[in-house]
Design brief:
Blueprint: H1 2-16, H2 19-35, E1 38-44, H3 56-65, H4 73-80, H5 83-95, H6 99-117, H7 135-142, H8 150-164, E2 175-181, E3 184-185, H9 194-225, H10 228-232, H11 237-242, H12 248-282, H13 287-314, H14 317-346, E4 351-357, E5 360-365, E6 370-374, E7 379-384, E8 398-404, E9 409-414, E10 427-432, E11 440-444, E12 449-454, E13 460-464, E14 467-472, E15 482-484, E16 487-489, E17 497-500, E18 512-517, E19 522-527, E20 530-536, E21 542-549, E22 556-561, E23 564-569, E24 574-578, E25 584-588, E26 596-601, E27 607-612, E28 617-621, E29 626-627, E30 638-643, E31 649-653, E32 657-661, E33 669-673, H15 679-694, H16 701-710, E34 714-716, E35 727-729, H17 733-756
């Protein structure tokens, strides 16, 4: 054992002799010193951010329309804008300026509004007297505006502003954090709670560790250790070593192990230092961050096994580095090709929504294209296509569709595309059965819509941060615009409209979720930090029947079935509430911190189905008040779920297959809707996927890092906060096992080569 320990010590001395190592240690120290002053302070939400602007174009038009009415909030705000900016906005609207001009104008408008919010002179009681203050604003006002400090006064102004411009501005949350570097604030405060900040920090840390450490760090580590094995094989050095009673394979493995342990110590210095800084400055003592240390060393060992094999063959450090880079390039290309095929072509086929439409079954895929099952042809036939074409293409582009049984049609809200300034307005879309399910675009929906529901008599309801609205008119008439020479002129002859039908006692704000019970005419709403049950009165208006404060600030989904309301939060917890009192009667965390994606309820009100982003389904029996005891087939690959009119359960797995079960209680298969795989799917299932399974995947260890830090088996594809937005499912164990097998094979091959080679 002593000779091999001596070899390991020699590996340390050789690595310590390189200048690259000392440069790396200095860079790590500088990096930690630069990160250490970054911190945050708790505050309240005041500033308006980009994501708060629902429709900047509509806001500008609203201000221009009221510029001659200074006694209104919009006219008053217009009068506070600088004259040159007033002219810029007017000219921009009249000339329909380009994207760059609009973005600059939107940025300046946001800055001007934020400046007014922090001005104690902006609030004018005569101008805002018609604004109905919420509970928090009323409480602040009672304490006396003159006695408030600047921060508290600005908070009051923001709350008033939210109500006055609720059609254009998202309501502010309560908590916020102000990032600081040393003692200097960085930008505006960010509307986040400490828990949300920690979640974002975990995501950022996962990115930094996987990119900075996992890619750049591995490359530097290979540079530092590349010369260890070639130097061992130099004439004289190898002769001296082999003259001793040592085993050639164990001699090589000692050198290999010495390089890994040396990199381990450097990794501990970086990761442990980062862990201390983040814990000290952000209060986030993440054990998962420390567990990334062995992951990083494991990734290094995979590349180092390739480097050492090249080293014993060519005895050249430069060649071993080049071979390692080529190996990385091949793994990268294979990984990208597999991911591209998954996300652009095959996962885009996965079912997003299942719609049992009486004697028809319709599904929509992630691109928003709709398909109807044709029993006589035993296949899915496209009945309507989303306007976007080409592979992949962002997240699911609709809310719905839902089946409007009284009118025998599908109803959906088609999301607007484009950036926040140029984004087109979401519109109501209907697809009548007698029109072969072809979509007809109707009028624009109110801003902030998150829920679409079909009432018992076929009425269309939408709810969101802009309130609860009912559609009045004929949606199949299109947008109602006047046709001139075959071209639509929007706004002329338009009879259809959305009418607000809530009593305005509830502050409609983010985070928002709602669920409609058509049979009882009730609406369960989570708005900000309040839960409410709205019921319909004799005038057709929805008024608050029961409400209570909800202490959590994270995103959630809400569902209603029988005597229970279910609230599924983004931390993976599920609260079961009494539908009359909204008091909690049970809480579950069936899949840890994995996030929910959808909630469905059976028509008889007995069953609730919660689908999670990592494609697992959780069922709850409201009659027995306990989770379901059976699971559907394809668990871990479920992309959509729905209940049929007969309370049967529809579950979609794979690339468009749908299985119908007679009930969640027995989980007996009733029917299966699956067409024969096409060439692309067969190529993937029988060619690409098996090859990829056995291929080494060092780059996929990033998924393990993300899981260690977030404890979630999925990762967001963008910064969208909506829980229904698409997430990428992380494969945790496959890369670990395939990489372990590859590492074992490489070390075995190298040991055999060293044994048989005459050095």
């Amino acid at each position: 054992m002593r000779p091999y320990l001596a070899v390991i010590r020699d590996s340390f001395r050789e690595a310590l002799a390189t200048r690259v190592l000392w440069i790396v240690l200095i860079l790590i120290s500088l990096f930690l010193a630069l990160v250490a002053p970054l911190g945050y302070e708790k505050t309240v939400a005041i500033a308006i951010h980009w994501e708060d602007l629902r429709d900047p174009t509509a806001l500008v038009q609203h201000l221009i329309d009221h510029r001659d009415k200074p006694d209104t909030p919009a006219g008053y705000l217009w009068s506070k804008l600088p004259e040159d900016f007033q002219k810029e906005l007017t000219n921009l609207k009249e000339e329909d300026g380009g994207r760059g001009s609009r973005m600059r104008a939107a940025g300046r408008l946001r800055n001007e509004i934020n400046r007014q919010l922090h001005s104690r002179e902006f609030y004018n009681e005569d101008v805002f007297k018609s604004v109905r203050l919420g509970a928090e604003a009323a409480e602040i006002r009672q304490s006396g505006l003159d006695s408030l400090d600047d921060e508290r006064h600005a908070r009051f102004t923001r709350l008033v502003f939210d109500v006055a411009f609720r059609d254009f501005i998202e309501g502010a949350g309560q908590d916020a954090v102000q990032f600081v570097y040393l003692w200097y604030p960085i930008g505006d405060e960010v509307p986040l709670t400490e828990d949300q900040l920690h979640q974002i920090a975990e995501t950022v840390i996962a990115f930094v560790v996987s990119r900075l450490v996992g890619n750049l760090g591995v490359f530097i580590a290979l540079l530092v250790t590349a010369s260890i094995v070639p130097q061992m094989l130099d004439a004289g050095a190898i002769d001296l070593l082999l003259s001793k009673p040592v085993s050639r394979p164990f001699l090589f493995l000692s050198k290999f192990f010495g390089g890994c342990v040396f990199i381990l110590l450097n990794t501990v210095f970086l990761i442990a230092g980062l862990w201390l800084v983040i814990g000290w400055r952000f209060g986030l003592w993440s054990s998962g961050l420390l567990w990334t240390i062995p992951v990083f060393v494991f990734v290094f060992a995979i590349y180092y096994s390739v480097s050492t094999l090249a080293a014993v063959i060519w005895r050249n450090a430069v060649v071993s580095i080049v071979v390692s880079i080529l190996f990385w390039a091949v793994c990268f290309i294979v990984g990208v090709a597999k991911s591209a095929l998954d996300e652009w072509f095959l996962n885009a086929r996965r079912t997003a929504v299942i719609v049992p439409a009486e004697d028809s079954l319709i599904v929509t895929n992630r691109q928003g294209s709709g398909f109807e099952w044709r029993t006589d042809e035993n296949t899915w036939v496209e009945v309507f296509g989303e306007r976007r074409r080409g592979p992949g293409g962002g997240g699911y582009p609709m809310v719905g569709p839902y089946f409007d049984s009284p009118n025998s049609r599908l109803v959906a809200v088609r999301s607007g595309g484009g950036n926040r300034w140029m984004r087109s307005t979401p519109k109501l879309v209907v697809a009548p059965r007698d029109g072969d399910w072809k979509p007809v675009e109707s009028i624009a929906v109110p801003s902030g819509v998150r829920m679409l529901a079909i009432g018992r008599d076929g009425e269309i309801l939408v709810a969101g941060t802009g309130g609860l609205h009912r559609f009045d008119g004929d949606p199949e008439a299109g947008d109602g615009g006047l046709e001139v020479f075959g071209m639509k002129v929007p706004g002329f002859g338009q009879a259809a409209k959305f009418v607000r039908i809530d009593d305005d006692t509830l502050e409609w704000k983010s985070p928002f979720a709602a669920s409609h019970d058509a049979a009882k005419g009730e609406l369960a709403v989570r708005s900000g930090q309040k839960l409410a049950l709205l019921t319909r009165n004799v005038k057709g208006q929805y008024e608050v029947k029961t409400s209570l404060e909800w202490p959590r600030t994270d995103q959630s989904l809400i569902g209603r079935a029988g005597s229970r309301v279910v609230l599924a939060s983004e931390d993976g917890s599920i609260a079961i509430l009494d539908a009359k009192t909204l008091q909690a009667v049970g809480e579950y965390s069936p899949f840890g911190r994995n996030q929910p994606r959808d909630i469905q309820s059976s028509p008889d009100g007995r069953w609730l189905a919660v689908l999670f982003h990592h494609r697992r389904l959780w069922l709850y029996d409201t009659q027995a008040d306990q989770p379901g005891s059976r699971e559907p087939a394809g668990q871990r690959d479920i992309s959509a779920v729905a209940f049929g009119p007969d309370n049967s359960l529809f579950v979609s797995t794979g690339f468009g297959e749908v299985i119908q079960y007679d009930s969640p209680e027995s989980m007996t298969e009733k029917a299966r809707f699956a067409q024969q795989p096409d060439f692309l799917e067969n190529l993937y299932l029988w060619g690409i996927d098996p090859v990829y399974t056995i291929f080494p995947k060092p780059g996929e260890m990033e998924d393990v890092v993300k899981w260690l830090l977030t404890k979630q088996e999925t990762a967001a594809t963008d910064d969208e906060a909506d829980l229904t937005a698409d997430r990428v499912v992380l494969d945790i164990w496959e890369p670990i096992w395939s990489n372990l097998a590859f590492l074992a094979v490489m070390l075995t091959v190298t040991c055999v080569y060293v044994t048989r080679k005459d050095f």
